[in-house]
Amino acid sequence: TGAPTIETGVISIAHRGAPFFAPEHTIPSYEIAAGLGADYIELDLQMTKDGVLVSIHDKTVGRTTGGQGEVASYTLKELKRLDAGHSFAGRERKRYAHVKIPTLEEVLERFGDSVNYYIEIKNPADNPGMEKALIDALKKFQLLHKKDKNGLPKVIIQSFSPSSLKSVQRMEPGLPLIRLFNEKDFASLTDDAIKELQTYASGVGLPYRSVTKKEIDRLHSYGLDVHVYTINDKKTMEQYIDYGVDGIFTDHIDQLLEILHMRQN
Ligand code: G3P
Ligand code: MG
């Protein structure tokens, strides 16, 4: 049986927080996104050498922190020495100097059930046990199978890895799971592949340039939600909302929220 679909209008997903206002994947970035009213803050989870889930996008620490090497080669203690604001080019860069890479638990501790979480499991093949660590943390903060006041699931889990999503489903059936595709993989998505996907996923996360209205309608005909990433201009946001997408990942959550509020009134 297919997993639950996310009955809603268009969900606004703050891609890596609010990366133009504060360094991506930091508590201040998530605070700004939450404060602006994003439906979801997006986390990209990886695991440290000593098994701690942290939110950072790249496999390596160089681009955002100016450090060297892979996230997985650092213990948490070593990772906490890096400056997650190092490469931030925003106006307030002084304010965010030496902001740290957050652990999943620190984010859940900080926000609790005041926000919704759209959590990507990254590079699961490198870190067996990520899925169980994620489920355990969500259990600890009592966020599993909860909905917010608008009926949105408090937690959506996403990954490019079908096996990772299937292991989440085995451990915790009924969670809304989103299967991510890059442009190449999506182009080859056959009907059979979609039928298989339906057995564990509520929907798909696609690069917006990969989908036309026709393909969105086709995916909807299979009962799948369609979330697109990463739209950073208002004209394209309007275009994909008109196409009927169910969610948009954006670095400019303020702009998307403006459009959605205008459309609701
Ligand atoms: O998770 C959706 C989107 O963020 C996937 O792309 O590379 O930004 O994590 P990426
Ligand atoms: Mg992501």
Automatic annotation (TrEMBL):
Enzyme Commission identifier(s): 3.1.4.46
Assigned keywords, A-Z: Hydrolase
Molecular function GO labels: glycerophosphodiester phosphodiesterase activity
Top EC class of this enzyme: hydrolase
Residue ranges annotated for the GP-PDE domain, each copy included: 10-260
GO biological process, alphabetically ordered: lipid metabolic process
Protein name: Glycerophosphoryl diester phosphodiesterase
Organism of this sequence: Caldibacillus debilis GB1
Lineage: Bacteria, Bacillati, Bacillota, Bacilli, Bacillales
Included stretch of the parent chain: 56 to 320 of 344
